[in-house]
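I am still getting used to backbone structure tokens and would like to learn alongside you. Label the sequence line and the structure token line clearly, so we can match residues to local backbone shapes. Go ahead whenever you are ready, and we will take it from there:
>
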Amino acid sequence: MTGEFAAAWLPSVLVPLVGIGLPAVAMALLFNVIEARD
């Protein structure tokens, strides 16, 4: 039951999270590297 439930909602949560979170983290890291260089 719990496995099927997780399989049902996990992709719908993970896809937007990765789609928004990954670029945000990448941009923050890039920004920090650029700022640290000055």
Summary: Residues 28 and 34 are 10 Å apart (CA to CA). The radius of gyration is 16 Å. The helical segments are 2-37.
